[in-house]
Write a structure and sequence with these properties.
By secondary structure, this protein is mostly beta strands. It contains no helices and 11 strands. Strands 2, 4, 5, 6, 9, 10 and 11 form a 7-stranded mixed sheet that branches. The chain is globular. The mean pLDDT is 97.
C-alpha cells in the first residue's frame, strides 16, 4: 500500500522558515517523480513544486520560486520542502503526492 506521511508544518512568523518532510512507503520511491501541492479552504489545490525521480531536476510555481527548495533522499524514502522567507499567503495545508496519491497533509500557518 502506498503511504505518504507529511510532517514539519506549524506556525511561523512572516519571513521565517520551515522544512517539510514526506516519508514514503509501499513503493519504490526512487523510481517516481514527486510533487508538493497546497490547498486552502474553499480553494482548489495549487501546485507548488516537482522533483524528478533522481532529484536532478526541480520545478517551482512562480509564487514560490526563489524561496522554496524541493529535495529528496532516495536512500531514506523521504521528500523535503525547505520554505524560506515565508509570507502570509503561503498559509495552507501542504501535501506531498505521487501521481493521484496524496498524503494527509501538514498545516503551515504564516502569521505574526
Amino acid at each position: 500500500e502506498v503511504q505518504l506521511v507529511e510532517s514539519g508544518g506549524g506556525l511561523v512568523q512572516p519571513g521565517g522558515s520551515l522544512r517539510l518532510s514526506c516519508a514514503a512507503s509501499g513503493f519504490t520511491f526512487g523510481s517516481y517523480d514527486m510533487s508538493w501541492v497546497r490547498q486552502t479552504p474553499g480553494k482548489g489545490p495549487e501546485w507548488v513544486s516537482t522533483i524528478n525521480s533522481g532529484g536532478g531536476s526541480t520545478y517551482y510555481a512562480d509564487a514560490v520560486k526563489g524561496r522554496f527548495t524541493v529535495s529528496r533522499d532516495n536512500a531514506k524514502n523521504t521528500l523535503y520542502l525547505q520554505m524560506n522567507s515565508l509570507k502570509p499567503e503561503d498559509t495552507a495545508k501542504y501535501y506531498c503526492k505521487r501521481g493521484f496519491t496524496w498524503g494527509q497533509g501538514t498545516q503551515v500557518t504564516v502569521s505574526s
